[in-house]
Amino acid sequence: MTVLGILPATHALADAPVQSLLDQLSSLSNYSPSSIHPSRYIHSSYNPVDSPNDYDLLADGLVELLDDSELLADLVFRAPPPFTHNTQHAFQLYKSLANNASATAHSILAFLYDTGYNSVVDPHPGLALLHYTFAALAGHTPAEMALAYKHSIGDGAELSCDQAVEWYSRVADKAMDYYLSGPPGGHALPLSKPKLSDLKGGPYGLGASAASTGENAYRPVIYAGKARDSGENWHDLIDYFSFAANQGDLQYAVRLGNIYYHGSVYTPKFGPADGSGAIPKDFNKAKYWFTRATRKIWHDGLQSDKQREATKYTRHLVSIASNALGRMYLRGEGDAGTADYSKAYKWFNRARDLQSAEAVYYLGLMYKHGYYVDSNEDTATMHFSSAASSGYPEAYVELGNGLLARGDTENAIQHYEWAVNLSASFEGTYRLATLTRHHDCASALARFKSVSERGDWLTGDKLWQEATQRWALSSDWHRESYGRHEAEAALLAWWRLAEMGYESAQNNVAYILDQDTQRVRLTSFGFDPPVNHTLAFISLRYWEKSAAQHTLDSRIKAADYHFKGLGTPADPARAAELYLAADTSSLALWNVGWMYETGQGLPSDLNLAKRYYDQALETNAQAAVPVLLSLAHLYLKSLWQWVRSGDDNNLLSHFSGGGEAQDDAGASADGRSAREREEDRDRSDAREAVNRVDWMAYGAGDQGAHVPHGHLGFVDGLLQRSSPPDGHHHHDSSQSITFVVVIGTLVALLYLRQYIMGRLRQRAVDRLTAEITRRAHEHAGHTAARGQTQASEQVQAEVRQQQEQPEQEVRHRNNARRDDHDHNDDT
């Protein structure tokens, strides 16, 4: 059936529904996927159907109604259902648009040539660089960021810090201009961008990943992941906070105000709120809760300055609420959206009386710019100095700006550094990067990159929100075709951000396409699921890019891929380098110990194996069970080697004095043994090797060396990893057998422990039940009525009498028999 065949059926759609659709799609970067549902665009006379083919026909008919070529290309490339994106068609449309000097088209073509997305074209780094350059020269921000990132790591472009700084500085300049164009204090920064893996505790799960161990276990994203997995949602949390606040709990009223003001459940003291707890902002609700909190001291709100007596903690919480109200009135947030400087001034003064450094800073802004009060630079500087002395970071930025205006660059830099060290101040980071770019290129590069990614209101943040919403929507829709469609659209958005240098997006792409999701791999027994090596190649690429941005779990993941030969030839030595470079992770340390034990990637050395197992336990106490089992296996192996050959390379040699003598013989002038010196060399080599990532190996020329023959679509394999592996990597079967035995023993021990604990709990319950029953009987006996007690005693007497009657009869018969026996004896 052709498109023309359904046009009459969809003609009735051409008025209201289609126009509504076009209005929303006029800027796809602003649309909310959750608000778009297929049934919305189906006319009532056109019976809603569940067949994807019918939806596709309807979508084709609507696409024909579009006249805007750029909108049509965007729609075909990444549209919401019921439209199905067609990458090949979009590629042709973008090629035509690029010929007409469309910067957006050049940027999309560059992405396609760079990644070979969906196999629409073969990867071509040269053409990708060319199109990125065209788009960047036209001022296209995503292309500028992608070009800067490529120059910073040498991926398909010349490795040049100066070029990277040049392109990142252009993006940072635009971000700062937008920031300063906002209300007093600047536009609120976008929410942070959490990783999908962090919501699961990291790629290795809670407690095993570096993302959720040590201090990282207290990160908001970890709490968010636990809450989601337990079935909680933010509505339940806000309901609880509301209940507590309505009961008079002041802290919950302040927390609710912050939640609605920042648009996140997790609101830090400084900087952007956390995106893992995102909720819609509502300034009116925020103002309501802040106002209720201030009534703990000012019953009449703004009508009276008379304060009630309050504790120090209450005054602290009310100062937060008072300062927030002053900020909202100053910035025109809530109600009609207009500022009220007089109310702002009054609330800031109240907060200052309650020792709020932030209120002093904002009073300084009001004196600097003349909001409600006469402009006075000296008074403003006095307020900034007072706030800075109390540790408020943005006050240092204002003092630095003043010093810079007077030509005192050295002291200005010092103030900006203080602001950045206190809270990673957005403006302070930008000022510092601008002033130091010519004599410290590496630091300026990192700072400009940070500003570009944090201040991405108009580009990256919208694309990130789209990806997050569509990923969530993919699990909500039960139709498999539409759920997968949304997942692929989310992946595409994160993939584009990954090429722009966002580490969180690189991590998400690698995590979604991860081909090493098995926690236990039993290659020798053939139990491993099939691996799609094309997706493994892509996943490894982004694990390594994420690792290069100092992400510990990504570094370990990349090492796993190199060790197991996923997406690349197996290289245990390279894996060992990456594991050794991640020496703050217990998982990496355990892997190094295992490699020393088995001699894979590192020389066999049971003593070093034990050392790394011990370090793994010292790093993370949750590794106690696997370390204990590994040490048990290590001692058994050492005993077997000693019995079989008397090898000195075993743990038992220490007990016989051989190991100690060997260490003394190899001791250096500084008191270290030869083994310790060798270990230090290994660590040094690993730190140097971790940054030796051959990015150019990911170009089209080397791709065939790592990717199996045959056409494997990137996105088509996203949710169905059914491509058979090219071959198995053979390992020593004895190691797998030993591992299976160890795991079986561990399971048995855990089951036995659970059984014993269950029996102990049951015994405790039985004892408690018996004690409760005894006390209940005693209580009932003491409180019973006297008549009931007498009746009970009478009944008990009758029972005893009935029990004694048979006993008396038995005694009587026995006595009669004894008398008869005595009589017979006498006779």
Automatic annotation (TrEMBL):
The Basic and acidic residues compositionally biased stretches are 672-686, 808-827
Locate the transmembrane regions by residue number: 733-752
* Family listed: Belongs to the sel-1 family.
Q: Where are the TPR repeats?
A: 393-426
Which GO biological-process labels does this protein carry? ERAD pathway
Question: PROSITE patterns per the record?
Answer: TPR
Q: Where is this region: Disordered?
A: 654-686, 776-827
- Compositionally biased, Low complexity: which spans? 790-805
Q: What is this protein called?
A: Protein sel-1-like protein 1
Coiled-coil residue spans: none
Q: Which GO terms describe its cellular component?
A: endoplasmic reticulum membrane
Cross-referenced SMART domains, in alphabetical order?
SEL1 (SM00671), TPR (SM00028)
Give the matching InterPro entries.
Sel1-like, Sel1_AlgK, TPR-like_helical_dom_sf, TPR_rpt
Keywords per UniProt: Membrane, TPR repeat, Transmembrane, Transmembrane helix
